[in-house]
Design goal:
With 99 residues, the chain is mainly alpha-helical. It contains 4 helices and 2 strands; from the N terminus they run H-E-H-E-H-H. Strand 1, helix 2 and strand 2 form a beta-alpha-beta unit.
Length: 99
């Protein structure tokens, strides 16, 4: 299922509802994969407080993976797919709050 969210409280609520629905459907808390962009900091804090498994990918690594593709397609859906693919291929470590 594809959807977009805004970077506001309503968007955060929509994301949390989606994650809750995925947990109900699968019986497992879904992991969240995202790039390490500054504007995601608040999202990371909220999801970490709710004990989601977070996998945060360095932008340099994700850019290299995206640009190594033979097909130069640039869409959010393709980017999301490549981030997930990178997560499984590289066995990236989950985020840990160092506070």
């Amino acid at each position: 299922e594809k959807f977009s969210i805004k970077h506001d409280l309503e968007g955060l609520g929509k994301l949390l509802d989606f994650l809750k629905e995925m947990k109900e459907l699968t019986g497992q808390q879904p992991p969240v994969v995202l790039e390490s962009k500054g504007h995601y900091h608040k999202l990371v804090v909220v999801l970490d407080e709710r004990h989601y498994l977070l996998i945060i990918i360095n932008q340099l690594i994700s850019h290299k993976a995206k640009s190594s593709s033979l097909r130069k397609v640039k869409t959010d859906a393709v980017d999301a797919y490549r981030l997930c693919e990178l997560t499984y291929k590289e066995e990236l470590k989950p985020y840990k709050n160092e506070e």
